[in-house]
Amino acid sequence: MTGAQLVLKVLQQHGVKHVFGYPGGAIMPIYDAFYDSELDHFLCRHEQGAVFSAIGYARSTNQVGVCMATSGPGATNLVTGLADALLDSIPVVAITGQVFSSLMGTDAFQEVDVLGMSLAVTKHSFIVEDINDLARVLHDAFELAQSGRPGPVLVDIPKDIQIGQVDFEPYPIPKPELPEFSLEQVEAARSLISHAKHPVAYVGGGVGMADAVDELNDFLTTTKIPAVATLKGLGAVDPTYPYYLGMIGMHGTKASNLAVQECDLLICIGARFDDRVTGKLDTFAQKAKVIHLDIDKAEFGKLRKPDVAIRGDFKKLIPQMKTVVDIGEWQQQVSDLKAEHAWRYDAPGEGIYAPALLNELSQKLPHDHVVSCDVGQHQMWVAQHMQFTSPTNHLSSGGAGTMGFGLPSAVGAQIARPDTMSVVVTGDGSFMMNVQELGTIKRFQLPLKIVLLDNQRLGMVKQWQELFFEERYSETDLSDNPDFVALARAFGLKAKTIHSRFEVSDAIDQMINTDGPFLLHVVIDEKANVWPLVAPGKANHEMIEG
Ligand SMILES: Cc1ncc(C[n+]2csc(CCOP(=O)(O)OP(=O)(O)O)c2C)c(N)n1
């Protein structure tokens, strides 16, 4: 068979069913092989759409997402998505076509050093130099993308390798090796937990990626230790757990931030002390000892020195943390904090208050639904005011904060989980960054629901200009936005605009009950800001409110 046919065979061996991509000269042999293949290829309308769809696919299923692009501009268009996947530890395999090996280094048409370019934004990148290595390299790519801390891996395949002849030999797929931890370490952690008076579990994205949501909730309900979550950890803690305080950090809940500042033991489970979480690092949870559990050793002591650090598979490790605690007083304190700082949705006026709309949307959506966000104020409102029952149901660009993430990642999630309702919550700035993916929705008749919160501004940047740049609103005005309803209709979506809070309820019902895709264009006040907020360089207990 040809190298191109072998590529698709290996993908199938790894259980891949869906691939997102965009063809071009240097990858034409692989696209030719798709013509007779059982694999489903989804043509996106931009390579960035393809990589974000692969990310959405991966995040909503915990499986590898696969995308493809041609050499040169096709490959460069993948870079932002690969960086996004690296920062959020998402398993993605990207395959790029490369010019003929004999032309490499000659500035050939559409030649870019993809290996060199991508190394900074992938867990690993390969270029295939010998057709006899092709299968092994692809297997290695899948293994690397999923093993340990997941991440994106790129395989660049010159055209001569794609058209060359090779034998296909089935390859036994190795079982992932998971690190073992010592009982001594477990004992040290358990001793800290049982002696703590004010412990808090600080839950990150690692829990969902280790498929250890049940183990985490069992640990929490057994010990009744209060818990907070990072943006990527949302959905890991059962939202009905009475000692769950919501998101921590810059736009976290006041109760979360205050509880963490007061705690004497921070049990960090699959999180990484990101600056958006800690605020001024040396003021973060100052009184606390730290237990750090992670799959990636490199995180230990990177930003905060742990008292006990254990590398392990969370499915086995978290149950080992169960121990007897005596924290009745602290539970009461935490419950009081939660009650005192509960969200309020009674904003004045007739305009639409985005947090109230999202809260209502969250209650009305079917139990198991996926929400993909874009980046900005609306992203933080989703994190604050919507509830998730699994981390695979909340897709948000955390580490990179990439505008344009929402629409294509929802495309990937909808294809991965066709029976689950997928909702995009986007802003008028972010929506335009990958708006071409409306074409993908149309082509594949994806029943996505899009809630576009339109403040005619780059809201989050405008908020910072208001608060930290003396209201000098430089280049954040979007009042010349297109007619979003007409735009959506041009792609075959049903669409509607609302301006008043009295229209919200019916509009949400209409959107949910409409068969097929729907865009709900929600006009909101450009002055609305996200609160509370930890200002840059400040400590988390110094949160400000509007
Ligand atoms: C690709 C990219 N470019 C720029 C930014 C910086 N940025 C962060 S939020 C934001 C504004 C987002 O505006 P919009 O999508 O309308 O959302 P809003 O904040 O108004 O809810 C910008 C420009 C970014 N995060 N990503």
Automatic annotation (TrEMBL):
Catalytic activity, as annotated: 2 pyruvate + H(+) = (2S)-2-acetolactate + CO2
Cofactor(s) recorded in Swiss-Prot or TrEMBL: Mg(2+); thiamine diphosphate
EC number assigned by the record: 2.2.1.6
Gene3D superfamilies assigned to the protein according to its UniProt record, in alphabetical order: 3.40.50.970, TPP-binding domain
Domain of life of the source: Bacteria
Cofactor binding: number and manner: Binds 1 Mg(2+) ion per subunit.
Domain Thiamine pyrophosphate enzyme TPP-binding: 374-522
Entry keywords, A to Z: Amino-acid biosynthesis, Branched-chain amino acid biosynthesis, FAD, Flavoprotein, Magnesium, Metal-binding, Thiamine pyrophosphate, Transferase
Pathway, per record: Amino-acid biosynthesis; L-isoleucine biosynthesis; L-isoleucine from 2-oxobutanoate: step 1/4; Amino-acid biosynthesis; L-valine biosynthesis; L-valine from pyruvate: step 1/4
GO molecular function per UniProt: acetolactate synthase activity; flavin adenine dinucleotide binding; magnesium ion binding; thiamine pyrophosphate binding
PANTHER family according to UniProt: ACETOLACTATE SYNTHASE, THIAMINE PYROPHOSPHATE ENZYMES
Name assigned to this protein: Acetolactate synthase
Source organism: Saccharobesus litoralis
